[in-house]
């Protein structure tokens, strides 16, 4: 289990995609992506991790719900298709700014 760090581990996305519930430490490196709807966030101590695992083992409905919602979340927000869409939006934004700047600077020269 991770007890410190500053970047979100890429394996988080693979775990979410698996459709299985995740037990993760409640650190900003994880909460940048994870929340309590899609993962079991626990204290960074052995007892916290153990309690998270036990809670999921005891509650099948919660396990299934977290797994399903985690998979949906990663597919909607971090899939290849979503990445392509975000890149396209960035290019369109930049091109729109460039077009506006060209029109503004072009009209000033007249």
From TrEMBL:
InterPro entries named among the record's database cross-references: YkvP/CgeB_Glyco_trans-like
Domain Spore protein YkvP/CgeB glycosyl transferase-like as annotated: residue spans: 6-86
UniProt feature coiled coil, ranges: none
Protein name as catalogued: Spore protein YkvP/CgeB glycosyl transferase-like domain-containing protein
Gene source species: marine sediment metagenome
């Amino acid at each position: 289990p991770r007890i410190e760090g500053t970047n979100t581990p890429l394996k988080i996305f693979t775990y979410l995609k698996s459709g299985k519930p995740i037990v993760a430490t409640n650190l900003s490196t994880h909460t940048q992506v994870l929340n309590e709807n899609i993962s079991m966030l626990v204290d960074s101590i052995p007892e916290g991790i153990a309690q998270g695992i036990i809670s999921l083992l005891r509650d099948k409905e919660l396990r299934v719900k977290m797994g399903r919602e985690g998979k949906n979340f990663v597919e909607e927000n971090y899939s290849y298709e979503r990445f392509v869409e975000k890149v396209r939006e960035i290019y369109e934004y930049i091109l729109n700014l460039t077009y506006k700047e060209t029109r503004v600077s072009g009209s000033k020269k007249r």
